[in-house]
Amino acid sequence: MPDKDFYSKRHPVTGKFYDPRMQPRFTELATFMRAPSADDLSQVDIGLIGVPTDLGVTNRAGARHGPREIRNASSLMRTFNIERNINPFDLCRIADLGDVQFDDWYNLESQVDTIEDFYRQVHAANVIPLSAGGDHSITFPILKAIASEPLALVHIDAHTDTWDEIWGSKFHHGAPFRRAVEANLIDPTKTVQIGIRGGQNFAEGLEFSKNSGMRVIFIEEFADLGVPEVIKEVRHIIGDHPVYLSFDVDGLDPVYAPGTGTPEVGGLTTLEAQRLLRGLHELSFVGGDVVEVAPPFDPSGNTALVGATLMFEILCLLAVARSQPGV
After folding, report:
1. Cα Rg of the chain, angstroms
2. DSSP character for 156?
3. 259: preceding bond cis by omega (within 30 degrees)
């Protein structure tokens, strides 16, 4: 449990101590969930991180702007989750760790290495990462950094993201989980992909997911089963295994999240997504991300708000997992 002064901040002009989370939501510098900016990783349990790159996209770019706009939208988040009856900020020391900083903004392979190095430092400090992308290619290097054993995976998306090399790159946003299986970072038999749909030019990704042992829940089956049954199946498959959660906003119907690079109609509603995440609170989460928010395609700002809201729900899952005895 955080020290009572962890969230206090001293104003540089007045010298007064105050809690920025309790100030009007239109004030203060934008940080994720109005959490403090971290000065010392040793004092942090859960780190909120931005990864502003979209070099891995195969369609519309724009997700590089995701972290900044999600930060802005997350000022609307409050501290208490009334549906879960928890306050994650009371359970853990939560801070914004800033963005991954790249030296080579035009080299995807170099960025994979940079992201991995950044998250290795976070992991070495025993900090659980919750990230805002960026496109989905960021998840592979994050997993490389934090997976000391093959992890279970909950993957919510319109696409399986298990393609192989395409257009000269094997690190694009359609390939992170194929690369993760090949590197023994995730256990495909403890991987559940939820919301899969949309047309394909080739079936390679779907075949890889199924042949490797992943449980693929297409959107039609999701609709037929309903949220409670899907939650039961996820719990049954994953059990108490350490698990990472990756949420691509194109898993939602574009009615709710139009600001994304590869929208697919017929997806989850925001309420279904919230209910699904809330039902996974018994799992042993070790990290998570929300990716593919591309603000330029949604001038209303609603997709960024959706991304921030999903991040808060995942933050609650991580806080419960981290606060368990012995963690």
Report:
1. 18
2. E
3. no
**17 burial level (CB within 10 Å; 0-12, 13-18, 19+):** exposed
Set out the domains of the chain in order of their start, with CATH numbers: 21-322 (3.40.800.10)
Report the C-alpha gap between 111 and 124 in whole angstroms: 20
- Give the chain's end-to-end CA distance (angstroms, integer): 12
Closest listed residue to residue 273, CA positions, set 210, 327, 222: 222
Q: How far is CA 12 from the centre of its chain?
A: 33
How many residues does the structure list for the chain? Answer: 327
Residues 171, 164: contact at Cβ < 8 Å? Answer: no
**Around Cβ 217, how many Cβ atoms within 10 Å?**
19
The residue-averaged pLDDT of 275-298 equals 97
Instruction: Tell me the pLDDT tens digit for each residue of 81-111.
Output: 999 999 999 999 999 999 999 999 999 999 9
Give 3-state DSSP helix, strand, coil % of the chain, rounded to 5: 40, 20, 40
